Description:
Blueprint: H1 2-32, H2 36-69, H3 79-99, H4 109-118, H5 126-140, H6 148-166, H7 170-189, H8 192-204, H9 212-230, H10 248-278, H11 288-302, H12 322-329, H13 335-354, H14 362-383, H15 391-407, H16 410-421, H17 427-444, H18 452-456, E1 462-463, E2 466-467, H19 468-471, E3 487-488, H20 493-503, E4 507-511, E5 517-522, H21 523-528, H22 558-568, E6 572-577, E7 580-589, H23 590-602, H24 604-624, E8 628-634, H25 646-650, E9 658-664, E10 667-669, E11 682-688, H26 692-700, E12 708-711
Parallel strand pairs: 3-4
Antiparallel strand pairs: 1-2, 4-5, 6-7, 8-11, 8-12, 9-10, 9-11
Amino acid sequence: MGNNNGNGNGHNRLTRILLVYRHRFLRWLSSHAPPLSVILLLTALAIGLATGVGAVIFRFLIYSVEQVMLDGEAGVVPAVRILLAPALGGILVGIITYYFAREAKGHGVPEVMQAVAMQGSRIRPRVALAKILASSFCIGSGGSVGREGPIVQIGATIGSALGQFLGVAEERMRNFVACGVAAGIAATFNAPIAAVFFAQEIILGEFAFFSFGSVIFAAVTGSVVSRVVYGDFPAFSVPPYQVASHWEYPLYVVLGILSAFVAVFYTKAVYLSEDLFESIRKIPEWLIPAIGGLLLGALALSYSYIPGLEYHGMPQVFGVGYDVIEATLHNRYFALAAVLLLVLKLAATSITLGSGGSGGVFAPGLFIGAMTGCAYGLLVNSLFPEITAPAGAYALVGMAAVFAGSSGAVITAIMMLFELTGDYQIILPLMLSVVVSNLASRYLLNGETIYTLKLARRGISLAHGRILSVLERIKVHQAMRHRIHCLPENLSLLDFKEELKRHQHRAFPVIDSEGKLFGLVTAYDFNQLNLSGLDLEKETIKKIVIKDPLVTYPDATLAEAWRIISVRSIHALPVVRRDDRHALLGMLHQNDIRRVYSIASQHKAWQEVTEQQEKLSVTIEDDISEESVFVEFRVAKNSVLKGRLIRDLATGLPEQSIFTSLRRSGRLVIPHGDTRIQEGDLIELLTTNEKLPEILSKLFGGGELKEVGVKS
């Protein structure tokens, strides 16, 4: 008891100290009032430095764990270490993620995307420490994962922690998180340009140009920290490949299609493995990563005797695998070995992540892509030896294509491979394969990626950094502007120029003499107009009006409107009647959607509670009436329910029964399908008197009923 109080008092003292320093800092800011640009650059510098140092510590810890667990005499790792090291690492990972920070489980990027989209970019500071430790143990002990997922989560946590300390607004918090992500990627891979695009393209889901400067500054800072420690070298040494013939371009298109199928299989294999491990009931959750580690060790031992795949040190499927990738780029593997390593790496990564390991999917994706390109390159070399480059060139392009196909990040993939290799000569076929792979995999995965699919499985749909599941609940008429400033069709360009100065709008609806929508006129179109020789007083806005603009309707959802605005890169939509496209009802601007989204996402949990209540009220009124009862029970230490998923329990419930709420440590948790029941959870479900005995029998098997309460 005394220890708990001591810990609590220590935590409270630390909180008070931080609040004092925060107050002093904010008071200094208010008294000196430095320019906003200076503040942004200073915070980006702080985030970049902290994340860069974190990345260096992270890499050092991985190396240290590897030296302890997988070191051997004369570089030969004993078989017993290969078998047991991943299991030992899995035990440590399981303890950290289960008892300290569950967000540290898995590859980390989806958790950051969810925090940015749903939690106002707020991430618990402890996640950074938990992720560093868990991923170091996982990768260092042989886990088949990469460094990018952990460093993204670490950098994002550092940025979020600084934002929370300073009490900044949500939009600025997003910028801080992006700075941390960019600094982490830049420091880990010595790729500052790609790091900036990764933060914008994947984490934010949009290119926020107003924040580009600070994100670039943070990325440069993180990269400089890394270069001071490790030197300025690309991650891979690549021979100077180039296109051997123009006839190769169709072959690279085929490689893009092949890479898309490999990327889709890779994505689905990871989540299939996750489902299989989650179905294990009789083993404590924190111990499951050790089971995965044992399977990984057995897999590594099983192929060591295949000709061409022998190893004396680290197995090829262990860790990030950069040495194996470099050997592939230098044409040191034959076709069968490349195919076997592709399959083995897929299995190793799926086992590691599916069992609850901690690490990224980027490095395994590069490995799998290199093997895909290598095998394909050797095939086309044998068929068309005079017009094709060496297999290493195809391996290089395959790396980018598989990454783009799995992540959906086209620009990041192109820039990342350029910076990782320092090779620009093969950029054209690389770009071609990347685009083809991305388009094909998007189609095959219904628009999802290896990052967003994890969120989609939780019922969270993301598009361009916004939660479509939130926007789908809100109609356009709830967010649109009813009082709008319309312009007559015969307004002169000179008067329109004055309107732009007065109203600061980017788009105006134009109406005809009968008050009907004539079109839309934008500031962009006016600025693009060649004014030389024009009489602005005589020329009207008809010269630049868009006569058939894209529109939306009052009963459409904001998700539908956002898809139009984000994909077409427009700033506003006229809102019209469905039966008359010229009957103008209002205007919907980008900022209107952002404002409503910001409010709605902060109250998403409450909305879900309301929906549950509405659903229950309908059920009670239509089906259950006064025969309804609430069953409330607390999960005991040795309960058969402990560790099980809500969706598995719900499938066994009789009709007219539903889980309504779950309280954990005094906090309300909305029970989703992937919610795992823990000891001490207070669970409530709604059923009928008639179904009550069946409920108790299915959940408890007739026992464990001491803490079950029934409320009419």
